[in-house]
Amino acid sequence: MRKALGRFASGVTIVTTAGAEDAESVHGMTANAFTSVSLDPPLVLVSIATKAKMDSRIRATGKYGVSILAGDQEPLSLHFAGALHAPETVRFVWRNGLPLLEGSLVHLACTVEASYPAGDHSLHVGRVGHLWYDDGHLLVFYTGSFRSLQVAGHDDPWG
Ligand code: FAD
Ligand code: NAD
Fold first, then answer.
1. Which H or E element spans position 5?
2. Res 44: pLDDT
3. Residues lining ligand 2, judged by CB closer than 6 Å?
4. Which of 20, 42, 90, 124 could form a disulfide with 128 if both were Cys (CB 3.0 to 4.6 A apart)?
5. CA of 47 to the centre of ligand 1 (A)
6. pLDDT at 154
7. Three-state SS across 68-130?
8. pLDDT below 70 — which residues of the chain?
9. CATH tag for 2-149 (out of 3.40.50.300, 2.60.120.380, 3.40.630.30, 2.30.110.10)
């Protein structure tokens, strides 16, 4: 499964949540199982392992943030996966009562619309209440390793 699914290239996100707007109550974790679900209403989805602390934290707060990482944020993705201790790279900005990672390409602040059990993961569907985005290099996860993807232009190919 991992070898096959690792060939589906993805971006990398940090999923965050907090019970109150203070640094003490923040929890974050790295996730690449993130997808867009619906435009109207605006819904996204994260798949979180039931054994991850994040699963019960999201159930408790009923909300989560998604920060899509930029090309130079690999240390953050390792930090929030517990693979590297790099707290000096962690800086939050607050939107809709949710912490989001400074320097990321996209910020989404979501309230949980529904949560579904799915094997050893939970699927948390979130309604997007705030979004912000920027252009720049993107962090890509492919076959278990990270790459920085430089995007030449941002013209709409359909437009
Ligand atoms: P912990 O393991 O306790 O926390 C994760 C790390 O974040 C710890 O090092 C902790 O110190 C740090 N941290 C937490 N809160 C803060 C804070 N407020 N300030 C500073 N540091 C903090 N798992 C999934 O379930 N779904 C996925 O889609 C997924 N995708 C992944 C993609 C990649 C590229 C990688 C590398 C891992 C992925 N994982 C995924 C695995 C997941 O990131 C780890 O299992 C993670 O450790 C689970 O976090 P946890 O909630 O159990 O908390
Ligand atoms: P990897 O080779 O484990 O990951 C390749 C792909 O396999 C991932 O992109 C994902 O699609 C799938 N995958 C891996 N572990 C999974 C899991 N526990 N549940 C569901 N799908 C999973 O990459 P790696 O660099 O060895 O990963 C580092 C760590 O992060 C490992 O412990 C891995 O389990 C975890 N991880 C978990 C998920 C997830 O839970 N969805 C996704 C990616 C990585």
1. helix 2-5
2. 98
3. 2, 5-6, 32-33, 47, 49, 81, 144
4. 42
5. 12
6. 61
7. ECECCCHHHHHHCCCCCCCHHHCCEEEECCEEEECCCCEEEEEEEEEEEEECCEEEEEEEEEE
8. 152-159
9. 2.30.110.10
